[in-house]
UniProtKB/TrEMBL annotation:
Organism: Undibacter mobilis
Biological function: NodD regulates the expression of the nodABCFE genes which encode other nodulation proteins. NodD is also a negative regulator of its own expression. Binds flavonoids as inducers.
Family, as annotated: Belongs to the LysR transcriptional regulatory family.
Molecular-function GO terms, alphabetical: DNA-binding transcription factor activity; sequence-specific DNA binding
The entry's keywords: DNA-binding, Transcription, Transcription regulation
InterPro entries: LysR-type_TF_proteobact-type, LysR_HTH_N, LysR_subst-bd, WH-like_DNA-bd_sf, WH_DNA-bd_sf
UniProt name for this protein: LysR family transcriptional regulator
GO biological process: DNA-templated transcription
UniProt domain HTH lysR-type: residue ranges: 1-59
Length: 294
């Protein structure tokens, strides 16, 4: 039995109340439509239609089945449309929001390569460390490095981001290196203002135990680049995303500490509004990010 053809035949008979009319719409004979519906009823073991010489109407079971069949066919049509869209060239305006530090350090080259691949797109990038409402701001894609709250928005994980405890060599020479997280209470610390844990730092030790520290901070700011620059100048110890400090770690401007104690990873998400037909430009951009970020 061709289940898909039988579903389409049944749905059209219900909507048109006639085998003949359904056949004309589907460009099939009345007998072919009747055969499809009959095969469907036999397969299910139930009667779906009440038949008279003038019209056909759904039974109670048939009405319930019809409603589900309509949804199934709509999903199939949407899948067909999405597959067709992926072969088309994306055009128009793509509005993207991203955190300031991540955008300036990592996103620029990615966007440039995406523009080269899809030259008919216009991209508007908004960089901010504030939490914005993608729907209210009219954004197509929002990139966030955060632990997400429950939301009706769709969030696709792109990549995990490691963090390190670090400071300048001069700071450690003057104040000594911490040997365990509790030692941080004796140091000047530089903290990020938007952590889900507030101004408490969490570390997981080599034995798997968690250590929570409320550091004595001398600087609290909502931009991690400022923390990095203050750490380079010897103002204290910071916990920084690796992507933000990798150049300074390689050059020796920053050195790590507490390497056996791991801060929680951060996660980069692509967030967008739910829609039955995700636009091709959004789909391609997110797939491109997944490809590049990994």
């Amino acid at each position: 039995m061709d289940k898909l053809a039988s579903l389409r035949a049944f749905v059209n008979v219900v909507e048109l109340r006639s085998f003949a009319e359904a056949g004309r719409k589907l460009r099939l004979s009345r007998s072919a439509v009747s055969k499809y519906v009959g095969e469907l009823e036999r397969d299910l073991g139930v009667q779906l239609l009440n038949r008279t010489t003038r019209q056909a109407s759904p039974t109670e079971t048939g009405q319930t089945y019809y409603e589900r069949a309509v949804a199934v066919l709509a999903d199939l049509d949407a899948a067909d449309q999405a597959a067709t869209q992926l072969q088309s060239t994306p055009r128009g305006l793509l509005r993207v929001n991203a955190p300031m530090s991540f955008g300036t350090i990592k996103l620029g080259p990615v966007l440039a390569d995406f523009m080269e691949r899809y030259p008919d797109l216009q991209i508007q990038l908004v960089l901010t460390d504030e939490q914005v409402d993608p729907v209210q701001e009219g954004l197509d894609v929002t990139l966030r490095i955060a632990e997400l709250e429950p939301s009706s928005l769709i969030a696709r994980k792109l990549v995990d981001i490691d963090r390190v405890v670090c400071a300048s060599p001069g700071y450690f020479k003057k104040h000594g290196q911490p040997k365990q997280p509790a030692d941080l209470r004796q140091h000047e610390c530089l903290t990020y203002g938007f952590l889900s844990t507030g101004n408490q730092w969490k570390f997981t030790g080599p034995d798997g135990a968690d250590h929570w520290i409320a550091p004595k901070w001398s600087l609290c700011v909502n931009n991690a680049e400022v923390l990095r620059d203050a750490a380079i100048k010897g103002r204290g110890i910071a916990v920084l995303p690796v992507f933000l400090a990798e150049r300074e770690l390689k050059s020796g401007a920053l050195v790590t500490a507490l390497d056996d104690y791991k801060p929680p990873q951060l996660t980069l998400y692509a967030i967008y509004a739910p829609t039955r037909h995700l636009s091709v430009k959004v789909r391609l951009f997110i797939d491109f990010l997944v490809e590049r970020m990994r």
